Amino acid sequence: DTEVTQTPKHLVMGMTNKKSLKCEQHMGHRAMYWYKQKAKKPPELMFVYSYEKLSINESVPSRFSPECPNSSLLNLHLHALQPEDSALYLCASSPGTGADTQYFGPGTRLTVL
Amino acid sequence: SQQGEEDPQALSIQEGENATMNCSYKTSINNLQWYRQNSGRGLVHLILIRSNEREKHSGRLRVTLDTSKKSSSLLITASRAADTASYFCASTDSWGKLQFGAGTQVVVTP
Fold first, then answer.
1. Does B25 contact chain A (CB < 8 Å)?
2. Which of A28, A39, A46, A59 is the most exposed, fewest CB within 10 Å of its CB?
3. Helix %, strand %, coil % for chain A, to 5?
4. Chain A residue numbers touching B85 (CB-CB < 8 A)
């Protein structure tokens, strides 16, 4: 299995909702990432997990809460989001956290009403 | 934060023509990578060039890297309609953090 999967593909939520984005890879990669991408902009790094531990948090607001239950899964818990948080959320994985190629999932298109 | 610039921002060519896009970055890098993204989907890795390499080829792709100028270029030869996409360069630091350029939107018309 050489792909990163993300669910759901689309998500619409209200500002008071709690939802979660899921990401899964079975390539044995030990680093996983969350990115946020606004329309016509490049992806921006949010979080990096290395060996299931959070290693980088790019000053992301606490309404985004990442979780890595095991080496294959990465979640992003969402609570009390704002309309400006609407974006494409991309998950990626790489063999390690060195200068490795990152493999991206198809993304979750999030709309916050 | 965005690492560098890409130009042009948009490029429109006909099938069979070559497409060239450039990327500049700001800090020291371990390597530089190019990714393709089709209309708001995930990014697909195209090619990686290490900081001690100057040129690399993969199929119809040719990448150059000039570390003295902190710049890279991606050439797609004999373009096809299926090459229509946004192309991003991404520099990698020693922590493995990818810093993406602004991207070049390429449209290839039949």
1. no
2. A59
3. 5, 55, 40
4. none
Distance from CA of B110 to the nearest CA of A (A): 24
Q: Is the confidence at residue B1, as pLDDT, over 70?
A: no
Among the partner residues B1, B44, B96, nearest to A99 by beta-carbon distance: B96
Q: What pLDDT, in 10s, does the model give residues B66-79? A: 999 999 999 999 99
Contact between residue B81 and residue B53 where contact means Cβ atoms under 8 Å apart: no
Out of A44, A99, A106, name the one closest to residue B41 (CB): A106
What is the maximum span of chain A, computed from C-alpha positions, in angstroms? 39
Q: Give exposure, A2-38, as e/b (b: 16+ Cβ within 10 Å).
A: eebebeeeebebeeeeebebbbbbeeebbbbbbbbbe
For range A87-102, the mean pLDDT:
89
**Encoded tokens for B25:** 């970055």
